[in-house]
């Protein structure tokens, strides 16, 4: 069973500035700091921030789970020209609940020279026998990421203006 969840936010910063965050490892640091204690830990396992980079995340358990959830995600696509980044869970996490795919996609779209839209998407696929696990997928992680990164980007913009 395939599904997706979308969340978009507009930010009053240039698309290039937003991509400097979303297209790099800095995103993990900002998310960890901004979403603590929900995101307990983010560790670089391998890579330099390019395609193939693997992070290990420790997050608060989803509804119905016991204890923190630990999983690895891999950067599977980074397109600096189109400003698109995709990560997929490759070990643990929701894969342990019958998911065969859990992908987060980030896209930064220029609106004008001083603003952009950040499009966030979760794509997932779950085995038919575990279809009830699909209820674990909500827009909350996307909303949290968007809130934290928007605040960070606006803070950086204001700091650079002074």
From TrEMBL:
Pfam family, one: Bet_v_1
Highest taxon listed in the record's lineage: Eukaryota
GO terms, molecular function: abscisic acid binding; protein phosphatase inhibitor activity; signaling receptor activity
Keywords: Alkaloid metabolism
Tagged with keyword Nuclease: no
GO cellular component: cytoplasm; nucleus
Domain Bet v I/Major latex protein: 7-133
GO biological process, one term: alkaloid metabolic process
InterPro entries: Bet_v_I/MLP, Plant_def-hormone_signal, START-like_dom_sf
Keyword Metal-binding: no
Family: Belongs to the BetVI family.
Protein name: Bet v I/Major latex protein domain-containing protein
